[in-house]
Predict the 3D structure of the following.
Amino acid sequence: EEEKGGNFIEDIIREDLKQGKNGGRVHTRFPPEPNGYLHIGHAKAICIDFGMAEKFGGLCNLRFDDTNPTKEDEEYVEAIKRDVKWLGFDWEDRLYYASDYFDKMYEYAVELIKKGKAYVCDLSAEEIKEYRGTLTEPGRESPYRNRSVEENLELFERMKNGEFPDGSRVLRAKIDMASGNINMRDPVLYRIQHATHHRTGDKWCIYPMYDYAHPIEDALEGITHSLCTLEFADHRPLYDWVLDNIDYQKDVKVEGRPKQIEFARLNLTYTVMSKRKLRLLVEEGYVKGWDDPRMPTISGLRRRGYTPEAIRDFCERIGVARRDSVVDIGLLEHCVREDLNKRAPRAMVVLNPLKVVITNYPEGQIEWLETENNPEMPEMGTRKIPFSREIYIEAEDFMEDPPKKFFRLKPGGEVRLKSAYIIKCEEVIKDPATGEVVELRCTYDPESKSGGANASRKVKGTLHWVEASHAVPCEVRLYDYLFKVPYPDDDEDGLSFIDKINPDSLRILTGCLAEPGLKNVKPEERFQFLRHGYFCVDPDSTPEMPVFNRIVGLKDTWAK
Ligand code: ATP
Ligand code: MG
Ligand code: MG
């Protein structure tokens, strides 16, 4: 029951409130590391963190977990803020940085040393790893483990003062080298790193490790429920150890103690999700940037045309489980279709135009016909589209020698033009050199439009079309999945995810023609192009040449 739409975190919070824990407060945080752009997995975490606070009348902080100076950058901070806001969440005045607490963290480290619970260790990183042991074999104690408090205090201060090179010493917690949990075998709390931090500059040359820093950040902010992904479950005893062994209460005004709760990471078929892999795709030029419409990043999904509502609906539907799984990307596509079906105005765009001349229609005449903006939502009204003697239809909608069940246009055949007339194909004009069909000569039934005597006359096919003199030239970008296989992360075949990149994930169509209403569109405007799917205006658009990204096709592979 936990799997589908269930939410065990909600149950835990409800129980905590019932027991009066944390003075009845619920306070969560979303703690991204500013070392890359957010992806749809982060959207799940954002929806849970902000969603739980909202649900229980609590608060949610946005906190940048900026304890790795060499990997982090202000560019990412700004991108992350923009993405969280775009998704529809608001941290109000609760924006924090882990680096705000560097002084406090140092103070608590001194406290641990004084209590005999931390020591400076001179082993190299490789030696520490070797001494740490394995799952089946206990670790060995460092020869520096029993340094005196005085020596540790002095060395730690000298570490802070920049007297030692990178990697020469670390501060470690003194816990238990025989613990069944390797994370508890004297974990490193501080490392030396002579690096400029994007916020604290050169003030520090020692930086706290995540497992030490995170519980302190949570405690100082009065966080009650520290929600994170499953890979941190084994780190929870260390999270609790830190809180048990420092006196943070004296620095916090509110009642309570943070509790770490883990939920499953989101994985999606046909994509990769780790920032490391996404960064590689960007840096090696497999995609055009973090916001490439094929990327599972929030900025990529936004550029592709996904709505925040669809992404939030998706996060709601996948629920919160304790077991990792891979979600079918068809569900995400289903969510955006459902949303846009109700919201996106319809438009007619011909991707591969074939000219049609209607020989019995008066030359020079333009007629404005009414058509609905969204048949699902009559309140979205109607618009006028031009019709004349020359129009374009989709080249694929005509076949000279069609199979039996072809209900589009063929020589001598009839179709209805959407919101206009029935036309009949009288003559096929070909390029004499190539034999290619370049134009159709048709006649129309003047009584067949809405309100006419033959308005209800039935013909099999209805085609979308665009009037020639008002047509707006545009570019259309059609996307396929970035990977050829559903599980690109799966390396059992010995291949890297790079080997599974789909070479045909982007098709650019130029020379497309749109109805005149699409002339002055703005980025992020979305439409349903009749028979082609949902499209979004790309920021590459110019007033002369709008560019449209296909968000998804019309056919739903999810709804059964
Ligand atoms: P990655 O492994 O992709 O680099 P990360 O966990 O290092 O991700 P952070 O910036 O530390 O990225 O993530 C911020 C928060 O988002 C964390 O609480 C993390 O648990 C959560 N998160 C990250 N990836 C996912 C995911 N795929 N599904 C759900 N939550 C996620
Ligand atoms: Mg992280
Ligand atoms: Mg990471």
Notes: The radius of gyration is 31 Å. The first strand starts at residue 27 and ends at 30. The chain has a mean pLDDT of 96.
